[in-house]
Design goal:
Number of strands: 0
Radius of gyration: 15 Å
Helix content: over 70%
Structural class: mainly alpha
Largest sheet: none
Strand content: under 5%
Shape: globular
Number of helices: 5
Distance between the termini: 15 Å
Order of helices and strands: HHHHH
C-alpha cells in the first residue's frame, strides 16, 4: 500500500505541477481557448495565478516532506488542500455543464483523497 500511495502521489504531483505552472505562466486568454478552459473566464486573472501557485505548492507538498523526512505530516495536509481545490473544480465544471471535465476532476479528487486517507491513517509516516 505504501508503494501504491507513493506512485499515486507522484503522478498527482506531476499533474498538479503542470496544471499549476500553466495557470501561473500562461495568459488567461490563452487558457480560455484550451479545451475545457472556458472556466477561466469566470474568474479574475489574479485568482487564476494564485490558484496555480497553490497547486504548485500542493504538488511539492505531496512529495518533498516525506522524501526529505522533514515534517512528513505535510503530505496528507497537502492532499487535503488539493482535494479542496478539486472539489471546487468539480463544482465549477458541473455548473458549466461540462460532464467530462467534472468526471475528470472527481477522479483526481478520489485519488487525492486516497492519498490523504492513507497518509493520515494506516500508511502514515510517523
Amino acid at each position: 500500500m505504501n508503494l501504491a500511495l507513493w506512485i499515486i502521489a507522484g503522478l498527482l504531483a506531476a499533474v498538479f505541477l503542470l496544471a499549476g505552472t500553466n495557470k501561473l505562466f500562461i495568459p488567461q486568454e490563452k487558457l480560455a481557448r484550451a479545451p475545457g478552459g472556458g472556466w477561466v473566464n469566470d474568474f479574475s486573472p489574479g485568482f487564476i495565478k494564485a490558484l496555480g501557485a497553490v497547486e504548485i505548492l500542493g504538488a511539492v507538498g505531496l512529495i518533498l516532506p516525506a522524501a526529505l523526512d522533514i515534517a512528513p505530516l505535510l503530505v496528507p495536509l497537502a492532499a487535503v488542500g488539493l482535494a479542496t481545490i478539486m472539489t471546487g473544480a468539480a463544482i465549477v465544471t458541473s455548473r458549466r455543464q461540462e460532464p467530462k471535465h467534472a468526471l475528470l476532476n472527481l477522479t483526481y479528487l478520489a485519488l487525492i483523497a486516497l492519498v490523504a486517507i492513507g497518509r493520515f491513517g494506516p500508511e502514515s509516516f510517523s
